[in-house]
């Protein structure tokens, strides 16, 4: 049984209009992916439950959007402080439902809280405009006004930070929100609601509906007349369906979708640094992030040294239950995810990949997969084209800058890209030529609340984080004032 310092953070009902309410579709069993054991039973909800949450959010919108930004900021600041005070418990809840190592889970809680702190500050600085007039009897002004109720669907791989990255700017702007967290990881979302409640955030501003029928709930959030904006983090395939559904009411949308991140190591790179960052970005969250390295391109002159060092570093990773001291790689989220690793391996091996490390299920349990290194990757393989979303590192070689940039860009995705070189001219050329929303040179670590996170091409629409992350939650109004 999960032992939290504050066991009242474990909430199992929907949070709607400031109250804990049951769902109408039975129960969901939240299982620990490391052990398969039951963590908690939550309510399960249907379209009518979601509709009720939308109505609550719509009713709260007028008062929340018209209080001064400074006052909204104070509520958010209080929420942020409570999250930090409870970071250890929130981390434990996350490890229990999602599987990531506890240190990584607590780091996510802090990362997630950062969005609340940042937007509590940022909302006080969102300005309209006064435009020099075109006639003396008129004045021209531009207002920024909260867009309205926001529907959010959030993923299981970051059960905390992907909620705060959407909800915090929305709420800071004056919007009210209805969130559907992934049915596999609802406890982090509900604990955030508990803390928002304690922070005094008014009823109806933040609503969470837990449900396993993603289609029914998704249809409400994408088609309801009272939802003005919809935001989603998840796969490109699902994003396309949701985007089409939003068309019927012409909703504003933001989408954070899949990736196929290249990690390029040029011949002049600091190899030890490149190896360390490659491991960090490939194996974060057991390879289950949209920005995890997917394709590793190494210059042919250093391929042998880089690959050997990479193999040594991967072999040293500690695979364990996320609660175990020193755990670095936890389980995959579920059996389907592990099955996908088997399939990607079989496909790659049949097409000539070289197995350098791992390659099979891990003895710890059915959701564990060995950290794996493959060489000799070519473009015909599924793992060169699809998001791997697991602990398989796949290396291929290249001979020129032009060749590798062309290959790196030859994908429908455009979320994150990484490269290592000490040549400053190349840093400029390659960072400009990569068709990605996030480009990271000489580092594999970039996530921060103060900068925009968003994909090009089929990796998404809009940006979250940074000053960009709040703009989509406002409508622009031009006021032409006459009769002066
Ligand atoms: C994601 O994988 O979608 C989020 C990763 C991050 O925010 O660093």
Number of domains: 2
Q: How many strand elements?
A: 22
- How far the N terminus sits from the C terminus, by CA atoms, comes to 70 Å
Compute the average pLDDT.
98
Let me know the CATH homologous superfamily of the largest domain.
Answer: Aldehyde Dehydrogenase, Chain A, domain 1
Question: How would a textbook summarize the main sheet?
Answer: 7 strands, mixed
**Global structural class:** alpha/beta
Strand order across the largest sheet: 14-15-16-13-12-18-19
Strand content: 15-25%
In which range does the helix fraction lie?
25-40%
Number of helices: 15
| Shape, per Cα inertia axes | globular
Ligand inventory reads: succinic acid
Annotated CATH topology of the largest domain: Aldehyde Dehydrogenase, Chain A, domain 1
CATH architecture verdict of the largest domain: 3-Layer(aba) Sandwich
Instruction: Assign the CATH class of the largest domain.
Output: Alpha Beta
The radius of gyration is 23 Å
The low-confidence parts are: none
Task: Show the helix and strand layout.
Blueprint: E1 14-16, E2 19-21, E3 27-31, E4 38-43, H1 47-66, H2 69-85, H3 87-98, H4 102-122, E5 129-131, E6 139-146, E7 149-153, H5 161-173, E8 176-180, H6 186-198, E9 206-208, H7 214-223, E10 227-233, H8 236-246, E11 252-256, E12 261-265, H9 271-283, E13 293-299, H10 303-315, H11 335-350, E14 354-357, E15 372-375, H12 382-385, E16 392-398, H13 401-409, E17 413-414, E18 416-420, H14 424-433, E19 438-441, E20 456-457, E21 460-461, H15 468-471, E22 474-481
Parallel strand pairs: 7-8, 7-10, 8-9, 10-11, 12-13, 12-18, 13-16, 15-16, 18-19
Antiparallel strand pairs: 1-2, 3-4, 5-6, 6-22, 11-21, 14-15, 17-20
The structure holds succinic acid (SIN).
């Amino acid at each position: 049984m999960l032992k939290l310092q504050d066991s009242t953070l474990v909430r199992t009902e929907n949070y709607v209009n400031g109250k804990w309410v049951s769902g109408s579709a039975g129960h969901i069993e939240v299982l620990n992916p490391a052990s398969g054991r039951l963590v908690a039973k939550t309510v399960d909800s249907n379209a009518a439950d979601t509709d009720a949450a939308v109505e609550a959010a719509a009713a709260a919108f007028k008062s929340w959007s018209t209080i001064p930004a400074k006052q909204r900021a104070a509520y958010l600041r209080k929420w942020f402080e409570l999250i930090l005070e409870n970071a250890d418990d929130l981390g434990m809840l996350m490890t229990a439902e999602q599987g990531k190592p506890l240190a990584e889970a607590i780091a996510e809680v802090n990362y997630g809280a950062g969005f609340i702190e940042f937007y509590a500050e940022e909302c006080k600085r969102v300005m309209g405009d006064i435009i020099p007039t075109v006639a003396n009897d008129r004045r021209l002004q531009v207002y920024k006004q909260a867009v309205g109720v926001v529907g959010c669907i959030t993923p299981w791989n970051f059960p905390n930070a992907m909620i705060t990255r959407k909800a915090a700017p929305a709420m800071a702007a004056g919007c009210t929100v209805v969130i559907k967290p992934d049915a596999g990881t609802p406890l982090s979302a509900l604990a955030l609601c508990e803390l928002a409640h304690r922070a005094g955030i008014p009823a109806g501003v933040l609503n969470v509906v837990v449900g396993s029928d993603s289609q029914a709930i998704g249809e409400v959030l994408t088609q309801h007349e009272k939802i003005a904006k919809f935001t989603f983090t998840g796969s490109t395939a699902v994003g396309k369906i949701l985007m089409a559904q939003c068309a019927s009411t012409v909703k504003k949308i933001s989408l954070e979708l899949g990736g196929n991140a290249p990690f390029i190591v040029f011949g002049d790179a600091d190899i030890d640094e490149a190896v360390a960052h490659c491991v960090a970005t490939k194996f974060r969250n057991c390879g289950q992030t949209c920005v995890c390295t997917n394709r590793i391109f190494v210059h042919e002159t250093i391929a042998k040294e880089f690959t050997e060092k990479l193999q040594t570093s991967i072999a040293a990773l500690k695979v364990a239950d996320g609660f175990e001291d020193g755990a670095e790689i936890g389980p995959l989220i579920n059996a389907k995810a592990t099955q996908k690793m088997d399939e990607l391996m079989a496909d790659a091996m049949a097409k000539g990949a070289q197995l350098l490390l791992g390659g099979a299920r891990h003895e710890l349990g059915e959701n564990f997969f060995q950290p794996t290194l493959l060489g000799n990757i070519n473009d015909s393989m599924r793992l060169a084209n699809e998001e791997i979303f697991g602990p398989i590192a796949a290396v291929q070689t290249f001979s020129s800058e032009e060749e590798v940039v062309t290959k790196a860009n030859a994908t429908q995705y455009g979320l994150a890209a990484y490269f290592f070189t000490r040549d400053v001219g190349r840093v400029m050329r390659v960072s400009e030529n990569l068709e990605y929303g996030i480009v990271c040179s000489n580092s594999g670590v970039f996530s921060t609340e103060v900068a925009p996170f968003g994909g090009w091409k089929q990796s998404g629409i809009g940006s979250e984080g940074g000053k960009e992350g709040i703009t989509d939650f406002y409508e622009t109004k031009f006021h032409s004032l006459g009769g002066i």
